[in-house]
Design brief:
339 residues; Metallo-beta-lactamase, Chain A; Arc Repressor Mutant, subunit A; seven-stranded mixed sheet; five-stranded mixed sheet; 14 strands; globular
């Protein structure tokens, strides 16, 4: 995919450091123990205290970054935090929320549906078994699936005080107002914050630069995540945001241009997946092994498989593929699509 959208000159500080994006809005790059390197948290000053947006994993390097970041900006994590916002349930965004709440006493806000989803994923008794069974059904060897399941659904302690946000509501944010925007695909109940007055979009993992958000079909996912993502992405045209503050990677300014690039990327990826099943039926694991690079960690291979599943599922929606389930799931090109 040719990328024409350029990164901003903002947000070029090193991992572990904090920098001001606009007046009263700071980006803190929190290290994470996964290949992404860091997650961007945002620290927003307001008349009633500080708002923290996303938290990183709860581990020593992340805690240290929070401590040094707050000190550099000039506030006390124990006394000056009024609320903690979490865009979605993934552990690089939610993981340290309980620890931060324990320090600050501040409530943690997510979409109401995401609160329930988080409890299902991180506190459910059978979620590991469901994941392992799903990986095996979609072609992953049992030994790899069992190793992956135990590692990817390890217990994450949720904050004690979780309060719901609603899509479409407006919240005060640093002396301005932001609208809560439901943005499904990467996570079913992810939300963005759109400060229309200042032209700022806190984009979470919905619109990223240099990398594409993982749009995966997991055992606990709602149906057709790629279809919902593409519709959500297309619906963001005309938002008027000229400063995009994402959860990972560079900050950028051309939202419309990046939307075009992401839509083109998925068109191309769908065609690649279609070509893989055109010759003969294949399991999703076989397709993911052919499409993604060979040097993936087991953690990354699970995400590659989930993303492959989402694309194959979308090909079925388009009438270009058929899903066949026996001992394992295979996908094959639809006969009519080959004519």
């Amino acid at each position: 995919m040719i990328e024409g959208v350029w990164p901003s000159k903002l947000g070029v500080q090193h991992i572990g450091e904090v920098a001001e994006m606009v007046t009263g809005v700071y980006q803190l790059k929190i290290p994470v123990p996964i290949p992404l390197g860091f997650v961007s948290a945002y620290l927003i000053e307001g008349p009633d205290g500080w708002t923290l947006l996303d938290t990183g994993f709860d581990y020593p390097d992340g805690r240290a970054a929070w401590g040094s970041g707050a000190e550099a900006v000039g506030f006390d994590l124990r006394a000056d935090v009024s609320r903690i916002l979490v865009s979605h349930f993934h552990p690089d965004h939610l993981g340290a929320a309980r620890w931060l709440q324990g320090l600050s006493g501040a409530p943690v806000y997510m979409l109401g549906e995401e609160i329930e989803h988080s409890r299902l994923v991180w506190e459910g008794d059978e979620v590991v078994a469901f994941l392992v069974d799903s990986l095996i059904l979609n072609g992953m060897p049992r030994d790899l699936a069992e190793e992956a399941g135990s590692g990817m659904r390890a217990n994450l302690e949720l904050p004690e005080k979780l309060l719901p946000l609603r899509a479409g509501e407006e919240i005060t944010l640093g002396g301005s107002v932001a609208r809560v925007v439901h943005a499904p695909g990467h996570a079913d109940y992810q939300y963005l914050l759109h400060d229309e007055t200042r032209g700022i979009l806190f984009a979470a993992d919905h619109v990223l630069l240099k990398i594409t958000p993982n749009i995966g079909l997991w055992p606990e996912s709602l149906p057709h995540p790629l279809d919902r993502y593409l519709k959500s992405l297309s619906g963001m045209r005309g938002m008027g945001a000229n400063l995009v503050l994402p959860g990972h990677g560079p900050i950028f300014h051309d939202l419309e241009g990046r939307i075009d690039e992401l839509l083109l990327h998925h068109d191309e990826r769908l065609q690649v997946m279609y070509e893989e099943i055109k010759g003969a039926p294949k399991t999703p694991f076989e397709v993911s092994g052919a499409v993604f690079r060979e040097t993936l960690t087991l953690y990354e291979r699970c995400f590659a498989l989930a993303e492959t599943l989402a694309h194959l599922d979308h090909l079925v929606l388009e009438g270009r593929a058929e899903r066949i389930e026996d001992e394992a799931v295979v996908f094959e090109a639809a006969w009519t699509a080959q004519q």
